[in-house]
UniProtKB/TrEMBL annotation, chain A:
Pfam families: GATase_6. Gene3D superfamilies: Glutamine Phosphoribosylpyrophosphate, subunit 1, domain 1. One of its GO terms (molecular function) is glycosyltransferase activity. This is Amidophosphoribosyltransferase. Keywords: Glutamine amidotransferase, Glycosyltransferase, Transferase. Residues 2-301 form the Glutamine amidotransferase type-2 domain. The keyword Glycosyltransferase applies.
UniProtKB/TrEMBL annotation, chain B:
This is Uncharacterized protein. CDD domains: GXGXG (cd00504). PANTHER family: TUNGSTEN FORMYLMETHANOFURAN DEHYDROGENASE, SUBUNIT C (FWDC), TUNGSTEN-CONTAINING FORMYLMETHANOFURAN DEHYDROGENASE 2 SUBUNIT C. GO terms for molecular function: oxidoreductase activity. InterPro entries: Glu_synth_asu_C_sf (IPR036485), Glu_synth_lsu_3 (IPR012061). It comes from the Bacteria.
């Protein structure tokens, strides 16, 4: 089944309350996905062209000191380290991430990369959504937009790595309700022709990687999603975040649920209306179900 | 009047009471609070009771309804009044996909918009939508009437059988074998009667256009018998 929610705050005055507005939306989708949950938060940018790298270690209470020191030595210092439950947010200066990622994979094979981005930080874990939100303190987070997923796994294992959102390129993330039927061949094609590395065998990661590839080719988010309508086969409702953007797309049959609401202050989407019912001003919001095969995008600029 | 708070009473207990002949004989007016988008509220009723729900409902609200009047003061999720047999279901907000699917009888009134596949496989019920309807509305609808005061999405009436559709606004696109047909006095009378029954009095019945089946798709043609 799965539940997805997204909240995009147009009014900067509301950014401080992003997590507080968002957390109850995700909890409302618990029955659609009680296995695990994940949240992508677009918060303050890392200073001076740097980036936030979110890492996960399976052991709660893992000592991140050695990882932090290793990254610091190779990056010429760390801007900040914030540990949240099983995750650590390492804020790096403006350096090339690829060699650091290679070092990390070799020196700390138990540590996995959850997200990389100038503004993006993803937190995901197995367990009921309310507990996942609490473990990471999502309700206290600030930012412009957030995307979340409650998972009822069908395609792959219930693991932290299999949780959505998937981050496959700087600041891009995707959550998915549905199932793709051509993900295996598309994954192989992206591996072979574009050299995309995949962390899981999850179909949704392929959709995220596809969008990253289109964006790297110069597509706008809207154009990348138009191309996805052609190249992705299956049924899906996607909610997509980029550094400054927010998008929703349903497949041409549109049998997976989605509802959008918009006011002057915010845009919100969810699998079911009840997730939106607590938002301020929703009584007078424009509420509609997105049309099949129609790309909806919003941008901060 | 009995008021049921779904934050206190389990939904299964509510539905069990609504299915109990002694309970529905004793109490004919029910009010439900804290519905909070829960699924399957007031499904399978078969008694002339009135159930008023103060809030949003989830999937399949008032499904399989017979005789009862169910009123939702909020939005409704997927499959509202699915397979209704008789009675009346009224939603004051929007309805999600497949509202009134396969409904055989009774009246469904949606005061907001209905999403895609409204009245899919309709089998005899009447549906009145004050707002607009989404894509693939009345797909394979067999019998019954659908009145849309706003606009209709793409693929209206695709593979339609004998249900009749009336739309006051624009139609994004007609589905296979669905055609516009002359609006006659009987149609205007039918629309006026359905609007009046639904309690909608601010739209002129003469604004509606009629859509029905061209009967090219489903009718067996004797001249093709050699092909079988």
């Amino acid at each position: 089944m799965c539940g997805i929610v997204g909240l995009f705050l147009k009014d900067p005055a509301r950014h401080a309350a992003l997590g507080a507005l968002f957390a109850p939306m995700l909890v409302e989708m618990t029955e659609r996905g009680p296995d695990s949950a994940g949240i992508a938060v677009y918060g303050d940018p890392a200073p001076a062209g740097g980036r936030h790298v979110v890492l996960v270690h399976p052991t709660p209470g893992f000592d991140w000191a050695a990882v932090g020191e290793g990254l610091s030595a190779r990056a010429g210092g760390l801007v900040g380290v914030t540990v949240r439950d099983t995750h650590a947010v390492m804020t790096l200066p403006a350096v090339d991430w690829a060699p650091l990622a290679a070092w990390l994979a070799q020196a700390h094979p138990d540590v996995a990369v959850v997200s990389v981005g100038e503004r993006l930080a993803i937190f995901k874990e197995v367990g009921p959504p309310a507990r996942v939100l609490d473990r990471f303190g999502i309700a206290d987070m600030a930012g412009s937009h957030a995307i979340g997923h409650t998972r009822m796994a069908t395609e792959s294992a219930v693991t932290t790595a299999g949780c959505h959102p998937f981050n496959t390129g700087p600041d891009l993330c995707l959550v998915h309700n549905g199932s793709l039927s051509n993900h295996n061949r598309l994954r192989a094609w992206l591996r072979r022709h574009v050299g995309v590395p995949f962390a899981t065998d999850n179909d949704s990661e392929v959709a995220a990687a596809y969008l990253t590839w289109r964006l790297s080719e110069g597509d706008t988010l809207g154009a990348a999603l138009q191309a996805a309508l052609r190249d992705l086969d299956g049924f899906y409702t996607f909610c997509v975040g980029t550094r400054d953007g927010f998008a929703v797309l349903r497949d041409p049959i549109a049998c997976k649920p989605a509802v959008l609401a918009e006011t002057d202050d915010w845009v919100a989407m969810a699998s079911e209306y009840r997730a939106l019912a607590g938002l301020p001003g929703v009584e007078t919001a424009r509420v509609w179900e997105p049309e099949p095969a129609t790309v909806y995008t919003w941008s901060l600029n | 009047m009995d008021t049921i708070d779904l934050d206190i009473v389990p939904l299964r207990d509510l539905n069990a009471r609504l299915h109990d002949p002694a309970e529905v004989a004793r109490i004919t007016d029910w009010r439900i609070t804290n519905s909070k988008g829960r699924h399957n509220i007031a499904v399978g009723l078969d008694a002339p009771v009135t159930v008023s729900i103060a809030g949003h409902v989830g999937y399949y609200c008032a499904g399989m309804n017979e005789q009862a009047t169910v009123e939702v003061h909020g939005n409704a999720g997927v499959g509202l009044a699915e397979n209704m047999m008789s009675g009346r279901v009224v939603v004051h907000g929007n309805a999600s996909q497949a509202a009134g699917a396969t409904a055989h009888g009774g009246l469904l009134v949606i005061h907001g918009d209905a999403a895609g596949r409204c009245g899919i496989s309709l089998k005899g019920a009447d549906i009145v939508v004050k707002g607009s309807v989404g894509h693939m509305t009345a797909f394979m609808a067999q019998a019954g009437r659908l009145v849309v005061c706003g606009d209709a999405g793409d693929g209206l009436g695709d593979s339609l059988y004998e249900a009749v559709i009336y739309v006051a606004g624009s139609v994004h696109g007609l589905g296979a074998d669905c055609v516009e047909q002359p609006m006659e006095d009987a149609d205007r009378a039918a629309v006026a009667e359905l609007l009046a029954t639904a309690g909608i009095d601010d739209i002129d019945p003469s604004r509606f256009r009629r859509y029905g089946s061209a009967r090219e798709l489903y009718t067996f043609k004797i001249e093709n018998v050699g092909a079988y």
